[in-house]
Amino acid sequence: MKQAQMLPERLKEAFKERIKDFRDACYNLFGYKLKLVGQRRWSISSMYADSPDDVLLFEISHSGEPSLLETPFSSTLGDLISLHLMRQNSIPAFVSAVTLELASRQTIA
Amino acid sequence: MKQAQMLPERLKEAFKERIKDFRDACYNLFGYKLKLVGQRRWSISSMYADSPDDVLLFEISHSGEPSLLETPFSSTLGDLISLHLMRQNSIPAFVSAVTLELASRQTIA
Predict the structure, then answer these.
(1) Are B43 and B56 in contact (CB under 8 A)?
(2) Which family is this sequence assigned to (chains A, B) (predicted)?
(3) Which of B16, B89, B90 is the mutation pick for testing A, counting most A CBs within 10 A?
(4) Structure ipTM
């Protein structure tokens, strides 16, 4: 059945499922739960975090540029922030370094 | 306007926009374009890759477990595969290590 012919309820379900698949793929491949928590604000929490409260918060500017907002968890990551955000200017490198740091703690323990 | 009251066309647009926001957030925060390329198959390509053809391909099993499929690009990543997939058994750690490797090449150059 083509989307255009679907009833609104059915269409809504189909899209919800697609968004869920996307969210699950994100979690499985990148290791983070990705959530929209406000207008242009996203939170991510790592599958390797000690606590689900250990979130990183980002705001996307009108031009599409993301920046890290302070959270209790981000304030424990000074070294990675200096290296990857301030020197390397790369949010993906920073987020990746957080994953490697948290995952290595778990696999060493 | 509540979603249930929307016309199908309008609803479709609203969901498409939501999926696009999600996709953009993925790209900005994790550094990868995430694409569904078949039933339970996802491809990711890094913003730091030399070529858009440098993709990693994953298949999600029925139980939700992802595994890496071979691509020309993955076959160049033997060391990271050994360390993070075979020893650490972590796809997010592997994907993160690829980001850090590619990003560091770009920032050194």
Answers:
(1) yes
(2) Belongs to the MAD1 family.
(3) B90
(4) 0.90
